[in-house]
Amino acid sequence: MRSRLDRIRHAVGFEVIGLLLIVSVMSQFGYNAGHVGAMGVFFSVIATVWNYVYNVAFDKMMEKRYGHTRKTTGLRIIHAIIFEFGLLWVTVPVIAWVLKMTLWEAFLMDIGLVLFYLVYAYVYNLAYDHIFPVPESNTATAH
Question: Residue ranges per domain, the chain?
Fold first, then answer.
């Protein structure tokens, strides 16, 4: 299992590299890098807070409804979809306002960002595990 420090390095690295990539790409399309960067930091904070609040609420709902918090594959898919729609509800208007575009354009951009982060998360985690492998002494006890 990874240490607390390793998990912090992983999370901070994920956010910083992702933000740098998004700012770089969007600035190539003529968007103000400062606006995109500030918006990215704001979204990172919002996503982190929403992740905590949403997961606590979802687990409480599961505990009340099912008497446990074990999630089936179908429930995990529903969980992820509701989580993303909750983020869209906040992020789309902010994107439209900051980047001066319609809500539809902002929605399409946000979907693009979700798809980017889906691929980025896979690649980042693959690379991170290769660069910072889990120590052998911890992997034996993790199974």
Answer: 4-135
